[in-house]
């Protein structure tokens, strides 16, 4: 399938390609990935660091919440003595 165009409310016009044309598309895609491999690696690494940072932040917030909850319980218990 080369192109899909909406031609009505529930109808589409589809343009097909010969199998020989797909070889050129595959080669272009591989060339694009080779050319931009460094960019893709950097994006993946930044995404990984983002997930790690988010996980650390969630852990810090959870620990902070637990400390504040314990402190509130201690203060409440002391105040109602």
Keywords:
81 residues, mainly alpha, two-stranded antiparallel sheet
3D structure, described in words:
The protein is mainly α and 81 residues long. It has a domain at 1-35. Helices cover 74% and strands 10% of the residues. It is built from two helices and two strands, in the order ββαα. It has a two-stranded antiparallel ribbon. Strand 1 and strand 2 form a beta hairpin. The model has no long low-confidence stretch (mean pLDDT 76).
Write the layout of secondary structure elements.
Layout: E1 3-6, E2 12-15, H1 19-35, H2 37-79
Helix-strand category: mainly alpha
Count of DSSP-assigned helices: 2
The side-by-side strand order for the widest beta sheet comes to: 1-2
**Helix and strand string, N-terminal first?**
EEHH
Radius of gyration equals 28 Å
Low-confidence stretches: none
User: Considering DSSP H and I runs of 4 or more, what fraction of the residues is helical?
Assistant: over 70%
Shape: elongated
How many E strands?
2
User: Beta-strand percentage?
Assistant: 5-15%
Largest sheet: 2 strands, antiparallel
Oligomer: single chain
- Mean pLDDT equals 76
Distance between the ends = 77 Å
